[in-house]
Structures are given as structure tokens and as C-alpha cells.
Amino acid sequence: MNKQKISSYFSFLMFLGASFSVSAHNGTNASHGFSEGLIHPLSGFDHLLIMLAVGLWAASVGGRYLWLLPSVFLIAMAAGGAVGFIGVEVGGIETWVAFSVLALGIILSINQRMPTGIAIGLVAAFAWGHGYVHAAELSSGASVPAYLLGFLTTTTALLAIGMAAKLSGMLTQKALCTNFGALCSVVGAALLFGI
């Protein structure tokens, strides 16, 4: 199977996944532990897309971005999670999460290179918002360290999957980045504008 077909199949699977739940934030305030932390990034398309997109972007730009952007994402996500865990109220966070998916989709689809400081700032701000919403809905009975470890473990795996798609040679025609970026843009716009 050639690389173009692999890229097309991967893109198709991601579009197919759009039929599932778009947002992982149901406000149920359930008690959570390690296993719930592992599952949470997979329970909403917004989280899944942003994590795969950061991995793809890091690998498509290459160089120090390859390790820097995923590392910044994990650190900022943990920081956002910590703020959510202690109960600080942040207004408009769902709008920010939706915007992050839209914005990173556009960046990815046009293969935008930018100064390292700006790229780090964007990734950190996006990750902070996703980390915050991961944690903000937890009840007081939640096991915070276990949940944090769970969602950071899955986040690391999703970042690595995004990077692996590029590093395996699937992006020689840039089709995967373009298609995946377009998917992120569509989902982000749908979340942002309530479509």
C-alpha cells in the first residue's frame, strides 16, 4: 500500500470519527481516578484532535519543534489541570478550547511556520485550556494525582501518534496535514459557533 493511500485512509478514519461526541465536557462532576483520566482525552473529539494536531505540527516542522512543542503541551496542560483542580473559575474556557482546535487546524492545514516563541506561546495557551477543562469538572472525591497521571499518559500517546504519522513518511505529499488540519478547522468552527 503506497503512502498516499495510507494518508487517505488515515484522513478518512478521522473524518469518520467526527460522527462521535465532539466535546468531552458534560459537566457531570463525576468522581475520577487513573482509568477515567486515561479515557477522558478520548471521550471528546476536541481533545483528541488538538493532541494529534500538535504532534503532527511538531513533526511536520521538525528540528527542535519535534520535542519542544509536545513537551510544552504536556507541561501547560498539567498547569491548566492544576488550576482546574483547585477550583479557580475561568470564564469562556469552552470558547477558548473550541478556538484552539480551529486555530491549530488552520496552522496545520497551511503548514504554517512561525517564530519559536510564538509557536510555544500558542501551544501552551491551547494546552492550558484543555488541561483546565479536563480537571474543572471533577468532584471533591476525585483522586487528583491518579487522574492527572491518567490524562497525561493518554495525551503523551496521542502526541506520539501524531508525530509518528509524519515520521513514518505519511506526509510526503502533505496530504495528511492538509486534510487533518481541515478536519480540525471544521470541528473547531462547529464548536465555536454552535453549529
From TrEMBL:
The chain crosses the membrane at residues 40-59, 66-87, 93-110, 117-135, 147-164, 176-194. Keywords: Membrane, Signal, Transmembrane, Transmembrane helix. Pfam families: HupE_UreJ. The keyword DNA damage does not apply. This is Urease accessory protein UreJ. It comes from the Bacteria. Residues 1-24 form the signal peptide.
